[in-house]
Amino acid sequence: MSDSSSPTSARHLVLIGYRGSGKSTIGKLVARLLGLDYLDTDTQIQEKAGKSIREIFADHGEEAFRDMETAILRDLSTLKSLPASVIATGGGMIMRPENRDILKALGLVIWLEVSPEVATARITADTFTGEQRPPLSDQSLADEVERMLSLRNPVYAELASIQISNNAADLSAEDVADSLIGKIRQTHWYQAFEKQIDS
Ligand code: S3P
Question: Measured from the CB, is residue 107 less than 6 Å from ligand 1?
């Protein structure tokens, strides 16, 4: 895990993690509780392309989608007018080294960790997102999630300054958002954020 002392220019909270980790649910709650904007890189890509990610994969292939992810991140990192935001990222965004550099420069990177079993159950239950998202292999969903997490978890862990698990069935999204905010409050990022609010 990297050091949590992000430079103060890194104004955003960046959520990384696999599908089903709760990036959008927890991200929206944290944004509301801290008074930040919220944006999602997948949504930005879909709006720009005028099609779903499933269609982008089908029409242009995964590499083209990965290029779009990098282009969106470059745009966000040069947008001086972007208000301080919670930025939720696509689950595979962290696999390109260039993306990792930009994500770190954008803000405090937070990994929402999810187990293969919980991710598989949530993805299966989420039929709406399922229609928008392509499969990443021809394996069964459970095998795909297992394999992807074993490839990606070390990368999420290395990149993030904060890790929080979102697996417990007896914790609500509000509970997870509250405990995440508790962790955020202990960082240099939060001190800089408070100073900005006070000034
Ligand atoms: C992907 C995750 C998706 C989306 C695309 C690829 C991945 O985002 O970016 O379908 O490689 O894991 P979510 O994690 O928001 O579902």
Answer: no
